[in-house]
Amino acid sequence: MSLRTLSQRTAPFRAPEDRHAAEIEAFSWRYGAGDAHTLAGYEAMDGYVGARKAVGMEPSEIIQLVKDAGVRGRGGAGFPTGLKWSFVAQGTGKPAYIVCNADESEPGTFKDRLLLELDPHSLVEGMICGGIAIQSETGVIYCRGEFGFVARRLQAAIKEAYEAGYLGENIFGSGKRFDLILHRGAAAYICGEETALLESLEGRRGQPRLRPPFPAAHGLYGCPTTVNNVETIITTPYLLRHGSQWYRQWGTEKSPGPKLMCISGEVVNPGNYEVGLGTKVSDMIEMAGGMLPGRELKFWCPGGSSTPYLTADHADVPYTFEAIAEAGSLLGTGALMLYSDRTSVVETTWRYVGFYKHESCGKCTPCREGGAWMHQILGRILRGQGRMEDLDLLSDICDNIFGRSFCALGDAATSPVAASIQYFRDEYVHLIEHGTLPDGVYRTTDPAYFDAPPVRSVATTGA
């Protein structure tokens, strides 16, 4: 049974005999309690113990605890969280802000959504602890626009925390103040980029800012700001309650701690799982029931669609920031997307590039124009009209986008293209030479729709 099975939330979430040896329950242990989303249910399961401890500590002590644990950002970049918090400027005469990125718009990622549905107070508590650490009196949760149920759960949790005196003027009777605001975005992928998120919060179009200045010194409303992912922020209350060594019992020296995983694609039991970093990808595939019957692993994305593909030859790579990087990809958000030998890597790449073409904010030329060009070329190849020189052209476009756009969205659009040509050039060649996919590989889209010319309607002025 995977974490997606939620039909009986009042029962123990997962019986020990149903769990794979690699599975753990560090951050997901409250998921089985039917009332864990309420204040009473949360406090019955050690809720707000960490926050009560935090109000009596010096901010530097909390930051040092996070550094000692080796917490790295779980939103994609993997930057050390304690170091990031220590960069937030102090003594500027301006307020500081802690902002939570709950936009979760990376294709293949759905861990934050489940956490916020089942355990929303953990984020409220994490925001309080993080706010104390960076000496902030105001926190903002930027929630994905389509997350209607999540937003209602979060708003209810915030309301309960205010009524209990855990938010507001005198939190936990400490004399300290912390206010928390829930802001719903408009469901733009680009707003997952921290500076575009800040632009959106300020009421402007979500587009990335040129850096420097960095948010730590000049962020929300020109004030010192830190922006962190949901999974990153919920970590601090656990550290305050259990200590840094509890966190380090999982993972490796450079990639410590537990990880909430989204496993999707052609596996028997797709869903949310929790493992210790360092678990082999092959073990996680087994944990999800293995590949679908009659199918073998062909390629996979380690951390969502923005991370370069790896192949079946990489299946025994430990899931750590450093090992995945050494293999040629990125750990990203923790979205393991698995594809079998029946799936066309070219068609999958076409779909991903189409997504990034659609979600480009249009601010910079490499991303705005390059994504559209790549999508058109891939569509032409899939329609059986490709040319051998298209492969060099695609590689050249990738080279001219990567590292030349305002933010990482441009880089993300090139990741599947460059990796697919590197590892599966033969599939491209077969399509170009024969106009069809190799035997045993199937398309799921009618060739007529592969970036076919748009149908233009002509308005009449009729009389």
Structure characterization notes:
The protein folds into three domains: 227 residues, NADH-ubiquinone oxidoreductase 51kDa subunit (Rossmann fold), CATH 3.40.50.11540; 83 residues, Ubiquitin-like (UB roll); 105 residues, NADH-ubiquinone oxidoreductase 51kDa subunit, iron-sulphur binding domain (de novo design (two linked rop proteins)). The N terminus and C terminus are likely disordered. The chain has 17 helices and nine strands. The chain is an alpha/beta fold and 463 residues long. It starts with 38 loop residues before the first helix and ends in a 29-residue tail after the last helix. It is globular. Strands 6-5-9-7-8 form a five-stranded mixed β-sheet, with no helix packed on it. A four-stranded parallel β-sheet has the order 3-2-1-4, sandwiched between helices.
Gross CATH architecture of the largest domain: 3-Layer(aba) Sandwich
Strand content: 5-15%
Any idea what the radius of gyration is?
A: 23 Å
Along the chain, the helix and strand elements come as HHHHEHHEHEHEHHHEEHEEHEHHHH
Per CATH, the superfamily of the largest domain is: NADH-ubiquinone oxidoreductase 51kDa subunit
Short description:
This protein has 17 helices and nine strands. With 463 residues, the protein is α/β, with parallel strands linked by helices.
Record the SSE blueprint:
Elements: H1 39-43, H2 49-54, H3 59-69, H4 81-86, E1 97-102, H5 111-118, H6 120-133, E2 138-143, H7 148-164, E3 179-184, H8 194-201, E4 225-229, H9 230-233, H10 235-242, H11 244-248, E5 258-265, E6 271-276, H12 281-287, E7 297-301, E8 310-311, H13 321-327, E9 335-340, H14 345-359, H15 365-382, H16 389-401, H17 408-434
